[in-house]
Design brief:
Blueprint: H1 2-14, H2 16-24, H3 34-54, H4 75-95, H5 106-111, H6 115-124, H7 131-149, H8 153-166, H9 169-175
Length: 176
C-alpha cells in the first residue's frame, strides 16, 4: 500500500488535475464470466468464419434470360467454352461441302478456255513454267503421237537425229 500511496502522492505533485480524475472514476471491471467464456467464444467465431469462407457466397441470378451464361464468370469455364466453340466452328468449316470455288469463278473461266488459247499462253509465258513439268507433259503428248502415228521407237530416233543435225547452234540457244 505504501507504494500505491507514494505513486498517488507523486501524481498529485505532477498533475493535480489528473489525480482528481483518477480518484473520481471507478475502475472498469469485466463481467464475472468474461475470462471463463472468452476461449469458447473465440473458437466459436473462428469456426463460423471458416464455414462462411468455405461456402461460396450465393450470387443473385440475373433477372434477364441470360442466367445460363453466369458460369462464364470463371476464367476456367470461359476458356473451356471458347475452346469448344472454336473446335465446333472448325469442324463445321472442314466438314461442310464446298459448293463453289473460292477464287471467284476461275473454274468456269478455265472450262471455256480452248486448247489453242492455252498453248498460246504457254508459249508466251514459257519462262514462268517449271521446265521439268513441261517436259513431263510433252513426253506424254509425244508418246501419244508415236502411238497414233504407228512408228517404232527406232524410226522416231532417226527422225529426231536428223532434226538435230539440221538445227544450228543459234537456234538451240534461242530455244533454251
Amino acid at each position: 500500500m505504501k507504494h500505491t500511496e507514494a505513486v498517488l502522492k507523486e501524481l498529485e505533485e505532477l498533475s493535480p488535475r489528473l489525480a482528481q480524475i483518477k480518484r473520481a472514476e471507478t475502475p472498469i471491471e469485466p463481467p464475472a464470466s468474461y475470462f471463463s467464456e472468452l476461449q469458447r467464444d473465440v473458437l466459436w467465431q473462428i469456426r463460423q468464419e471458416q464455414q462462411t469462407a468455405a461456402r461460396p457466397a450465393a450470387t443473385p441470378a440475373p433477372a434477364n434470360g441470360f442466367a445460363w451464361l453466369d458460369f462464364l464468370r470463371r476464367p476456367r469455364h470461359a476458356l473451356a467454352f471458347a475452346t469448344f466453340a472454336a473446335l465446333l466452328v472448325a469442324a463445321i468449316w472442314v466438314l461442310s461441302p464446298r459448293t463453289g470455288s473460292l477464287d471467284n469463278g476461275t473454274d468456269s473461266a478455265l472450262a471455256t478456255l480452248t486448247e489453242e488459247e492455252a498453248l498460246a499462253y504457254i508459249e508466251a509465258n514459257v519462262q514462268d513454267f517449271d521446265l521439268d513439268l513441261l517436259a513431263q507433259f510433252a513426253d506424254l503428248d509425244l508418246l501419244d503421237a508415236t502411238a497414233a502415228a504407228g512408228w517404232s521407237d527406232e524410226e522416231w530416233n532417226d527422225i529426231l537425229e536428223s532434226l538435230l543435225d539440221e538445227t544450228d547452234i543459234q537456234t538451240l540457244e534461242e530455244l533454251f
